Amino acid sequence: MVYVYAVGLTLLNLALWVGILFNLPGAWLMILFAALVEWWMPGQFMFSWTVLFAAVGLAGLGEVLEFLLGAAGSRRAGGSKRAAALAIVGSLVGGIMGTALPIPIVGTLIGACIGAFVGSLVGDLWGGRPLFRSFEAGWGAAVGRFWGTLSKLAVGAIIVVLLAVAAFL
To answer: How many domains does the chain have?
Structure first.
């Protein structure tokens, strides 16, 4: 029966991993469910404190990477601090709106990248910067958001594997 729970938890973790594309806290929910399973069935799984703390550290790393790469993309392309802040807000709004795009799964990522671009562009134009410099900063924010999301997905995949191995051992 333990293996049935381990398979169920691994499938749930895979679904939560896909949720990262939709700006959901997939990595944190994976850790929460692993902790709940360990609490519910103590000693049945190998979710030791070490495994859970390693997963928490990885999830924190994923958040930091997503945040820094998204904001740094605009700053690296010459954007202002206001543009970087609005790129973050724009990516959240764009991600929500991108979910409605008829492109399954990646519509949210496309929306988040477009939102980061628009947010950075508006932030720089609002600050009085020229259009072409603002456009470059917006492009940098979109590229940074893309790589930030991919890095968070990579970290989430590591968490899925870590928890799956711990569930089956």
So the answer is: 1
